Amino acid sequence: MSSPAKGSIKKVVLAYSGGLDTSVILKWLKDTYDCEVVTFTADLGQGEELEPARQKAEMMGIKEIYIDDLREEFVRDYVFPMFRANAIYEGTYLLGTSIARPLIAKRQIEIAIETGADAVAHGATGKGNDQVRFEIGYYALKPDIKIIAPWREWDLTSRTTLIEYAERNQIPVPKDKRGEPPFSQDANLLHISSEGKALEDPWVEPDWDHVLTRVTPPWKAPDTPEEITIDFEAGDPTHVNGEKLSPAALLTRLNELGGKNGVGAIDIVENRFVGMKSRGVYETPGGTVLHHARRAMESLTLDKGAAHLKDELMPRYAEIVYNGFWFTPEREMLQAAIDEAGGKVTGTVRLKLYKGNVMVTGRKSPYSLYSQELVTFEEDSVYDMRDAEGFIKLNALRLRLRK
Known about the structure:
- This protein is an alpha/beta fold.
- The protein folds into 2 domains: 11-72 and 98-180, HUPs (Rossmann fold, 3-Layer(aba) Sandwich); 185-364, Argininosuccinate synthetase, chain A, domain 2 (Alpha-Beta Complex).
- The chain is 40% helix and 19% strand.
- It has a 5-stranded parallel sheet with strand order 3-2-1-4-5, with helices on both faces. Strands 10-9-8-13-14 form a 5-stranded antiparallel sheet, with helices on one face.
- A hairpin with a 2-residue loop joins strand 9 (236-240) and strand 10 (243-244).
- Helix 10 (304-323) runs antiparallel to helix 11.
């Protein structure tokens, strides 16, 4: 994709955090395209005070400033549907960063329409997945939108040049930003990712005490297991320890419980959509607890055929989300099938959290397909064991014919 021509942009909506990178981008957009800039800051539960972003945007002369609390929408309409699929990318990654990008893209396009902007801009680099996720989302929702990706255009290729640009343009640079950061972090209510710099060598163990911010290192977690219950209704969690909670409040509570008990910190190497491998440390405490609880609830309430088909579809669904194709017919088609299967995923799961482990200790449901009468080792009148002989011979027939 070629960059928009200079002078062709009248107004652009920038995904803006208020940090050094997006503050430089804000000024660069005005200088390079001589256009009006609208800033959009999303509260996805990253745990940071967002008011400074407003103040910084005002200081830089921005008239239209959007700061939106999207936490409930994020968990209700993005995290929960994804978790109904039990989605895990490459066997380990619960897609915490991936699932946030479609919502940011959607709200950016809505703001562009509201304000009459003809372009959107983001601060993702040209090496990562996020540029793909943002831009595929933009195009899916507004095919004629113009996109500006500064990291693919400008010559500010290092932390030093960014800071020099900021200083030349009277953009405040916090003291902690002047040195090269040991790694970069991205956070939302589901997950915190740490990547780059000190974490780039996959053989070097992370400095866990400095990297982890939401999860207690398991070896420092409490010595006593913590028992909790999670209630589900039609596929989604509704209560923790008997207390009904909104989607965002429920995930927040599970983050607290899981994080305290050392649950949900992983060190992985993954295959990016753009082709390279990357190493990261991810913290997903509440999501890890929820994933185990959901699987336990489904084990009781899903038919075998539906459960196995879901497991076959899951890697494809996870790849769709990872690669940024949330707003696509294939994701919507899979989602419809997954949601149909989950209609009776209702009941209660009991778990113990202990030093990084999530142990399921009980599950019950009004829609349980588990029959104690069938599985008992005691005498029963339901299952005739002699039927198994014909079942086995029929399944072995093709093998007997080979001889």
